[in-house]
Amino acid sequence: MAAPEEPELSQAQTEKLLQFQDLTGLESMDQCRRTLEQHNWNIEAAVQDRLNEQEGVPSVFNPPPSRPLQVNTADHRVYSYIVSRPQPRGLLGWSYYLIMLPFRFTYYTLLDIFRFALRFIRPDPRGRVTDPVGDVVSFIHSFEEKYGQAHPVFYQGTYSQALNDAKRELRYLLVYLHGDDHQDTDEFCRSTLCTEEVITFLNTRMLFWACSTSKPEGYRVSQALRENTYPFLAMIMLKDRKMTVVGRLEGLIQPEDLINQLTFIMDANQTYLMSERLEREERNQTQVLRQQQDEAYLASLRADQEKDRKKREEQEQRRQEEEKVRQSALAEERRRRTLEEEKERKSECLPPEPPADDPESVKIVFKLPNDTRVERRFLFGQSLTVIYDFLFSLKETPEKFQIVTNFPRRVLPCLPTEEQPNPPTLKEAGLSRSEVLFVQDLTDD
User: Fold this and answer.
1) 129 in a domain, yes or no?
2) Residues 391, 366: contact at Cβ < 8 Å?
3) Residue 230 sits in the same domain as residue 114
4) CA angle (147 as vertex; 144, 152 as ends), nearest 5
5) Pairing of strands 361-367, 79-82
6) 193 & 237 share domain
């Protein structure tokens, strides 16, 4: 039986799938899709859970039977540094510690029981993140109201946005989870986090993201990073193409010790960051080279296309010129044939030449433009058109011409006009029994 086909993804889901693969470095698209579906396509929760798995902490969808232990300091993947609270000193210190121990134990036990019971009555509102940016901005405002404006530059965006920027810029990302109710939080913020040397160090060396665990966004990050105590700091960087937690600092840490621990973590992982920078630079160079090759290919292609276009235009121009010459030759041939047919028709329509002894006959000698002479007899009563038709029928006569007398010089009106639709006869034209007429070529005109 064939397995049922998975439903097609929407455009938004496809974009989340590609973004999740880019952030986590997973090669299997099926695994990326299963992880996002488990988190109801919440990419931030899915990325955090994936980072959680990379630290060695089980996924929230495969919880262990008991609370997971803290990361082992022997694990070379994640450097863990925990500052324990100082032990009581002297008789007075131990006496105070022993007296307060039952009260402290009772308080925290009752508080845990109350929180546990409250989960069944009312779900934890921090479980639903509706405005992650608002959670971060609200924490920054409350922090400044309580501790002042002198503090490291907080990243004003979501945890996922901070991860994206750290990955894109190849920078370290330091995450601080603020426990509002913890006894060491105030001292850490005032004596460590807001000192000048720590502010300068963090602002110049890394991105700094912080949020309170009482906020939904901070609580979600807390569920992903699984801190054991407060104050809690986690160093994250791009390692082996994945955003990885490379250091965890927990407890009340002093400014000098904080700077030393962060410097140690950065020095220990500097080679990975340099490797990522070199690899990214190689990718960028390869991309630039490929782009230059593509541009050169396109330029060559455009040049070839331009050559082909010009060649086609030249060929088309030659073809048109040849066609024009051919059409002109055909037209000239048609005109010549038409002219010959017209000459034959005119020759056939000419009246017969009268005899020489006819008293009404007129002998005319025509001098043609090629200096040849033609002689023919006509009748006085015939129209000048007959003379014109006779000359037109001769092969030696040009296509257009006019007949001119010599003395006095005048042009004989052989063709009909609007003023004289019927040309005059030879007698009316004043011709004598013997005349010499000149044929003037008008073809060029």
Assistant:
1) yes
2) yes
3) yes
4) 70
5) unpaired
6) yes
How much is the pLDDT for 118? 54
| Total number of domains constituting the chain | 3
Mean pLDDT value across the chain:
82
What is the C-alpha to C-alpha distance for residues 289 and 277, in angstroms, rounded to an integer? 18
Summarised one tens digit per residue, pLDDT across range 78-128 is 777 777 555 555 666 556 556 766 766 676 577 567 655 655 565 555 666
- Domain holding 47, by residue range, is 12-55
Cβ proximity of 274 and 209 under 8 Å = no
Is the separation of the CB atoms in 137 and 209 below 8 Å? no
The three-class DSSP label of residue 394 is: coil
Asked whether residue 303 is domain-assigned, the answer is no
Supply the DSSP string of 59-121, one letter for each residue.
Answer: PTTS--SSPPPPPPTT-TTSEEEE-PPPPP-HHHHHHHHHHHHHHHHHHHHHHHHHHHHHHHH
**The model scores a pTM over 0.70:** no
Render pLDDT for 417-438 as a digit per residue (tens, 0 to 9).
888 888 999 888 888 888 899 9
Separation of alpha carbons 390 and 376, rounded Å: 9
